[in-house]
Design goal:
The chain is of the alpha/beta class. It has six helices and 22 strands.
Length: about 350
């Protein structure tokens, strides 16, 4: 039998039910966050109330910041499977961010009359230090961090006192937002200013009062000591690894001088027993590398890929086991050959 009710009359109750379910989950989430903030503040609650004027650990602004971080974790980290409950229940890196929000709020809250600012800094720092011990993530309470901040994995990450980060930043483990010096650094601004929607890969270091533009991506192991424009990508092109025996191979520079042509500069490159081979990304499956020219301080290499798989690394090996492996820059390109390319053993000293 055909219903006389209009489509709107049918869907309205379902929409109301869905809205109610969403509201219920939001209330549950905020209640859980309030408990987490209370637990983080509890060891120092008496001290907090004695120093601050009308302190409210569940202030809407603080709860809103932490909720944004929580949802960003759940949505942007695939390992969280979209579950804020999973993040709340198991992510110590989220607890590090929550503790920073608490410490930063304490540091900036109005203090009672007669309370010295040094006492407030010590209180905020004690919250931050406890979080560092529990999570492995060190964030100075004075660091200014925008909304929806994610530290993924997190161990070893350090964010300095005068660092500033915009909204929607995503940082991996081992990242250092530090100063350029070691001891006796200046008291003014000495840490980076990071724009919004910036992603920073594992073990990257951004040092000094530099400016990183919005939407920049800083790759793993990068060292940044100058300003980066908005939308730029910073990647490490070369990686060198050495195994030393009785002899030494020194690499000082790697240059791409044409398609499939790589110039390696260094020392000890004229050794008659030097072997040059191309390796895949997993360190095996040798691919042809041709020595086009050589001298004690340079090797000119041709990268051939007759099988369609270019070398990811070039390894230089001496008879005593001394070896150096260098990453082939992506910008090198590959020369395609039909005959399988030349052999991978360096020509005798003085050849070419």
């Amino acid at each position: 039998m055909r219903s006389n009710r209009s489509p709107g009359a049918v869907t309205a109750p379902r929409l109301q039910h869905t809205t109610t379910a969403v509201d219920t989950e939001a209330r549950e989430r905020r209640a859980a966050l309030a408990v987490a903030l209370r637990d983080a503040a509890r060891p120092r609650m008496h001290r907090i109330r004695s120093l601050l004027d009308a302190w409210n650990p569940y202030a809407p602004e603080l709860l809103g910041l932490v909720e944004g971080d929580l949802l960003a974790f759940a949505q942007r980290d695939p390992a969280a499977h979209g579950s804020w409950r999973e993040v709340m229940g198991s992510y110590r890196c989220f607890r590090a961010v929550l503790s920073h929000r608490l410490a930063h709020a304490v540091l900036g809250a109005p203090r009672r009359a007669g309370v010295d600012g040094g006492h407030l800094r010590m209180l905020a720092r004690s919250i931050a230090e406890q979080a560092t011990a529990e999570t492995g993530v060190e964030i100075h309470p004075a660091a200014t961090i925008g909304r929806r901040f994610v530290v993924d994995h997190g161990t070893g990450t350090v964010i300095g006192e005068t660092a500033r980060l915009g909204d929607d930043c995503y940082v991996l483990h081992g990242v250092v937002l530090g100063s350029t010096g070691i001891a006796d650094n200046p008291r003014g601004r000495r840490h980076p200013a990071i724009g919004s929607r910036v992603e920073i890969g594992a073990f990257a270091r951004v040092l000094g009062p530099v400016e990183i533009g919005d939407d920049a991506v800083i790759g793993c192991h990068a060292l940044v000591r100058s300003d980066i424009p908005a939308g730029a990508r910073v990647i490490v092109l070369n990686h060198q690894q050495e195994i030393r025996g009785g002899n030494t191979i020194g690499i000082t520079a790697i240059e791409v001088i044409g398609e499939g042509i790589l110039l390696v500069r260094g020392s000890g490159l004229a050794h008659p027993g030097l072997r040059v081979e191309g390796l895949s990304g997993r360190g095996r499956n040798a691919t042809p590398v041709t020595v086009l020219d050589r001298g004690n301080r340079h090797l000119l290499l041709g990268l051939d890929a007759p099988a369609g798989k270019p070398p990811a690394y070039v390894r230089l090996t001496l008879p005593d086991g001394t070896s150096t492996s260098v990453l082939v820059p992506r910008t090198a390109g590959v020369r395609r050959t039909r005959d399988g390319g030349a052999g991978s053993t360096a020509s005798p000293a003085g050849a070419g």
